[in-house]
């Protein structure tokens, strides 16, 4: 039985103080309101907040810590970078890899992401691997070939055991931060396609066990409808993860 998951990606938002205030509100709301829900929750703050947010999450109990990126090497002269091993040592469990913003603004390609995946897995962390198409690609009718290639080149080189640790996030780039959400039917269509590709690359069991998240202007209003789709197992939440009430309502949408 695959798990449902809601991951909040804070991106490059908030100060240290604002971040701690937000996470404290979220832990209280989740503790009070979400006790029985069948969902794992992850919060991915910027690097300088990881340790302190992690401590609050440990005290609060049931929310896991994630990072937004890491370097592919274990250590060394890579000024400004952060290794998976360091992330693991501050209590991180998940790492987002291949977010469309990393691909677009930092030119991360499938070859680099393959190395990052290996580093994350070697450190005992769980990757949240993102794929998604631009509006141009969708309108050209190339969504599925594009996603198929991202999965094949970026992800499907992993062994079965390594792949077991992976969560996939589908992010229609045209829906990120735009307020334009994919319809639940559009999301379901792509998620089913991704699951089918997993079955081909690995097997039916791996496909059934893989958690596939939707990311792209998911919010407290549309989460229930999106999460009710058979192949949508949760969300990678940007803007709405910065508001404790909205994020909690999204978690409660299962
Ligand atoms: O990582 C999160 C996704 O990019 C979605 O962001 P958004 O919810 O602000 O559209």
From TrEMBL:
Task: Name the catalysed reactions.
Answer: D-glyceraldehyde 3-phosphate = dihydroxyacetone phosphate
Q: What's in the keyword line of the UniProt record? A: Cytoplasm, Gluconeogenesis, Glycolysis, Isomerase
Q: Where in the cell is it found?
A: Cytoplasm
Q: Which InterPro entries match?
A: Aldolase_TIM, TIM_sf, TrioseP_Isoase_bac/euk, Triosephosphate_isomerase, Triosephosphate_isomerase_AS
Taxonomy, superkingdom: Bacteria
Record GO terms (molecular function): isomerase activity
Q: Which SUPFAM superfamilies match?
A: Triosephosphate isomerase (TIM)
Q: Show the HAMAP family listed in the entry.
A: TIM_B
Name the protein family.
Answer: Belongs to the triosephosphate isomerase family.
- Role description: Involved in the gluconeogenesis. Catalyzes stereospecifically the conversion of dihydroxyacetone phosphate (DHAP) to D-glyceraldehyde-3-phosphate (G3P).
What name does this protein carry?
A: Triosephosphate isomerase
Species assigned in the record: Hymenobacter fastidiosus
């Amino acid at each position: 039985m695959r798990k449902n998951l809601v991951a909040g990606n804070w991106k490059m938002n908030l100060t240290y103080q604002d971040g701690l205030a937000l996470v404290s509100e979220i832990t209280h709301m989740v503790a009070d309101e979400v006790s029985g829900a069948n969902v794992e929750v992850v919060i991915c703050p910027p690097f300088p907040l990881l340790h302190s947010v992690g401590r609050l999450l440990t005290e609060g109990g049931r929310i896991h810590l994630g990072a937004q990126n890491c370097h592919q090497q274990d250590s060394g002269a890579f000024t400004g970078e952060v290794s998976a091993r360091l992330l693991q040592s501050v209590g991180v469990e998940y790492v987002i890899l291949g977010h469309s913003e990393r691909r677009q603004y930092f030119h991360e390609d499938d070859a680099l992401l393959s190395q990052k995946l290996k580093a994350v897995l070697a450190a005992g962390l769980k990757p949240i691997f993102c794929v998604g198409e631009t509006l141009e690609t969708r309108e050209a009718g190339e969504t599925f070939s594009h996603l198929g290639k991202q999965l094949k080149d970026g992800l499907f080189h992993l062994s079965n055991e390594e792949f077991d640790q992976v969560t996939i996030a589908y992010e229609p780039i045209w829906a990120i931060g735009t307020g334009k959400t994919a319809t639940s039917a559009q999301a379901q269509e792509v998620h089913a396609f991704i699951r089918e590709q997993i079955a081909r690359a690995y097997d039916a069991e791996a496909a059934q066990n893989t958690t596939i998240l939707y990311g792209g202007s998911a919010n407290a209003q549309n989460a229930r409808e999106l999460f009710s789709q058979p192949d949508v197992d949760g969300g990678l939440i940007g803007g709405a993860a910065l508001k404790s009430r909205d994020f909690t309502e999204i978690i409660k949408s299962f």
